[in-house]
Amino acid sequence: GFKTEVEGHPKVIATVSGGKAVEFNGVDDAIWVENHPLAGWKTFTFEAIFRPDGGDAAQRWFHLASIDPKTGLAALPSGTDDPNPRFTFELRVSNHDHWYLDAFTHGCATIPDVCPAKGGYNQGLMIPEKSYPIGHWYAVAQTYDGKMFRSYVNGVLQGEVAMDYKPQGPGRASIGTRMNRVNYFRGAVMEARFTPTALPPDQLLKVPAAMDAPDPPRRAP
After folding, report:
1. N or C end of the chain, less CB within 10 A?
2. pLDDT tens digit string along 132-161?
3. What CA–CA distance (Å, rounded) separates 187 from 185?
């Protein structure tokens, strides 16, 4: 029910489980949605099932951001150091055949959420030692329970840190790229889910059993 825009040619594909996914070419495919699903929530779980297929070393493949009421923008035209409160799911490709997760959030010390020059939270959970083969499907999550910010891959904790989180304001989402069209994603996204509580690991999204085997990418970048 939210306004959605598509750039490039993201492709709807069938998966081995029988479900549908959207495949992105890592060059110019992207989807924008006029909604920030976590806006206003004091606790949350942000999840997705996706398949990374290699490509560039840094990919910001899911971006949620509040709109700055002064500018009407959810991201700066260039760069990756926005003042806007935001979440990203990012990945880093290592050795051309593995990836590791970066779950990131940035926001303000106070509400309303137009960030001052200083203050607030700015936290990434990126653990290079916990890497995974590309070409497989994975369920990733980031959660906040009122005290701890955590990230997961397939229900396995990747990292955690205490954080003084404040709810973010209304905004937008982009899938397949950062909102200002940098760090495009090569791979596919099957599902996303947003919950206003921090779910325990056994309640997080799981990759269907039929999708445990590698699913070769269908398009070259």
Report:
1. N
2. 999 999 999 999 999 999 999 999 999 999
3. 6
